[in-house]
Design brief:
This protein is α/β, with parallel strands linked by helices. It is built from 14 helices and 15 strands. It folds into two domains: 232 residues, no CATH class; 163 residues, Rossmann fold, CATH 3.40.50.
């Protein structure tokens, strides 16, 4: 929902006070197009803002959203893959989605769409978080089969509204009357439940991530077996948190820096380009960076750290390829708590760089944090390809995937230029008659 909030005030159905519903992915399994927290808005006239699955379940979700707007309740729908029923609404990718649908007014609580105009997706200030109640209305509703593949609603929620948090990194859940009201608790029992909630919610707020939090229901979790009543569903909250964009510091006003700056901005980084040479740094091709700084790299990095403008999400990419800049810069960077430190260069320059850093007093353990040569082993050659290699390594590091594919773990040449044989297209076969001029991959 947070991804849609900056556009909500300008979306005509919401801006004009029309009735709208919000559908949000609150559970996902297997191969699914979008993660938990992805939302889509639907108006009374069927207008849509956003997407949940790329098309395969949107039609069914719109139909349920219209029902929600008609009766004022909420629904929880399940979508999966059905090989038995070719006409069923499901996910062709084979995954499973759990979608919560409610009125937009309940999602935002007292926050009106026009009050969201100041929320900027690219510059959210100290950040923003949204905590929503998504559990079912009663224990009987919770019995709706979670294994059902398609469209099984579970009634309206016990809780209502949401808590909007303007500074999630500093928010104290245990002292929050707003969260207590959202949970429907008060008195002496409220603090113990809030402490339990804080233990799960605050890590999500602090890291700017999205997740579902479940807490023991107020009436207990044992139910009433003698009366045939099931256990109450846990209090369930959807927590979405967005922190200010992480910083990327690109050192090196060259072709590789010019390619990396816009690529990094596509990933949501706040990008600063730094170079000690004014004639290079002030070139127009670096205008995509939020900041362009002319200073000695290690001096600028140390000053930013001393001013508290770096954190554990900050990325440093050293593209200067010049020992007089690289060594003091990397020595400074490896002494800081940063998410990523990478340096461009050949394997020979990397070996020389390690020797120089060891001689400068950098501990061997700190050198293990250095991504050098920088990037994933994609066979990148051009500046644009190298930018893809670097950003791919950053994405892989976030998800802890592509293990062993980094250039730092490999051997042999970094750049593998295609041979003439590789550029020769295959001869047409009797079953392959090209209707266009085939071009070699480059």
């Amino acid at each position: 929902m947070l991804d849609l909030m900056p556009a909500l005030a300008a979306w005509p159905p919401a801006a004009t006070g029309g009735r709208c519903a919000v559908a949000t992915v609150v559970g996902a399994g297997g191969s699914v197009p979008r993660p938990v927290g992805t939302s889509m808005l639907v108006s009374e006239s069927g207008d849509v803002l956003g997407s949940l699955s790329g098309g395969c379940v949107e039609g069914a979700v719109v139909a349920v959203a219209l029902e929600v707007m008609a009766d004022g309740g909420t629904r929880r729908e399940f979508f999966g893959y059905s090989a038995e029923d070719a006409f069923a609404v499901g996910l062709t990718c084979g995954g499973e989605l759990e979608v919560h649908i409610e009125l937009l007014a309940d999602t935002l609580g007292g926050l009106r769409p026009e009050g969201l105009a100041t929320l900027d997706a690219h510059d959210p200030g100290p950040g923003l978080a949204l905590i929503r109640r998504i559990d079912a209305a009663s224990p009987e509703d919770a019995l709706s089969p979670r294994g059902a593949r398609f469209g099984r609603g579970t009634g309206s929620p016990r809780g209502a509204g949401a808590v909007v948090i303007p500074d999630p990194a500093r928010y104290q859940v245990a002292q929050s009357d707003a969260v207590a009201a959202l949970l429907g608790v008060a008195g002496d029992g409220a603090r113990s439940l809030l402490r339990a909630a804080a233990a799960q919610i605050e890590p999500l707020l602090r890291t700017g991530t999205t997740g579902v939090v479940r807490l023991a229901a107020e009436s207990g979790c044992s139910g009433d077996a003698a009366a045939g009543r099931p256990a109450a569903e846990p209090l369930t909250l959807l927590v979405e948190s967005r922190l200010p964009p992480a910083r990327m510091l690109v050192f090196g006003a060259n072709d590789f820096g010019a390619a990396l700056v816009p690529a990094a901005r596509l990933l949501g980084y706040h990008v600063t380009l730094c170079d000690a040479r004014p004639a290079f740094a002030r070139q127009e091709r670096f205008a995509a960076a939020e900041e362009v700084v002319t200073d000695w790299p290690h001096r600028y990095l140390a000053a930013e750290a001393a001013a508290g403008r770096l954190d554990a999400r900050t990325v440093v990419c050293v593209l200067t390829h010049d020992p007089k800049f690289d060594i003091p810069l990397l020595q400074t960077a490896l002494g800081l708590d940063l998410a990523y430190v990478g340096a461009m260069g050949s394997r020979r320059s990397h070996a020389q760089r390690l020797e120089s850093l060891l001689a400068a007093g950098v501990a061997p353990g700190e050198l293990e944090r250095l991504h050098s040569p920088i990037g994933l082993d994609l066979g990148a050659v051009t500046p644009a390809e190298v930018a893809v290699s670097i950003t791919a390594e950053l994405v892989a590091g976030r998800s802890r995937s592509a293990q062993g594919l980094s250039l730092k773990h490999g051997s042999g040449p970094i750049h593998r230029y295609p041979t003439p044989e590789a550029l020769t297209p295959p001869a047409p076969t009797p079953h392959h008659t090209p209707h266009y001029q085939e071009m070699p991959w480059t």
